[in-house]
Specification:
transcription, HTH_TetR, Homeodomain-like_sf, Helix-turn-helix domain-containing protein
């Protein structure tokens, strides 16, 4: 067997483990899913899982990284379809709310992510993906005088926290929760208040 074939088999095994773990974690949550169930669903052995991951927490981290990367890509793509910086910010923030409330995403990203990895590790992943786009957009708008001059880092953290909380609240879907459009309207007005006059 050639090195290339082995590398493709290893990659396929890893991909199957991440795919099935993601599906199970999204359906039932991290705590309710065991490793035997994951390897059974992926059609691999426990030894194969331990070849790629130290355990369930590391596998969950790989799943969360994939989810965070997808959300970041969606945010960047939505922003990229707009010409003006302000419109890019609005499109990216709206896309984050839509993407983060998609079935299966909110449980992995917003509920289990901080609980399993810990706040600091979860926040580092968030910053590496969607929060990075937010910081870049806000920094450019402050530098360009579109947003009132202020420190970008605390502004980024405040808006990121507000959007994460809004996404979690929307995805929870409890009675009394505002629909997406209503929540977006409030967030859009909040963002508008940052603009320089």
């Amino acid at each position: 067997m050639t090195q290339g074939v082995r590398a493709r088999q290893r990659a396929a095994t890893r991909q199957a483990l991440v795919r099935e773990a993601r599906r199970l974690f999204a359906e039932r949550g991290y705590a309710a899913v065991g490793l035997p169930e994951i390897v059974g669903a992926a059609g691999v052995t426990k030894g194969a899982l331990y070849h790629h991951f130290e355990g369930k927490a590391e596998l969950f981290r790989a799943v969360l990284e994939e989810v965070q990367r997808e959300i970041g890509d969606r945010v960047a793509a939505a922003a990229g379809r707009r010409a003006e910086g302000w419109d890019q910010l609005l499109a990216g923030c709206r896309e984050f709310l839509v993407a983060a409330t998609a079935p299966g995403v909110q449980r992995i990203m917003l509920v289990d992510g901080p609980a399993v990895l810990g706040w600091h590790a979860w926040r580092a992943l968030d910053e590496a993906h969607s929060a990075r786009h937010l910081a870049d957009a806000l920094g450019a708008l402050v530098a360009g005088g579109v947003i009132v001059e202020q420190p970008v880092e605390p502004l980024t953290r405040l808006l990121s926290g507000a959007m994460n909380e809004a996404a979690l609240w929307l995805a929870n879907g409890k009675e009394g929760a505002a629909p997406l459009e209503e929540t977006w309207g409030v967030l859009a007005r909040l963002l508008e208040s940052l603009r320089a006059r």
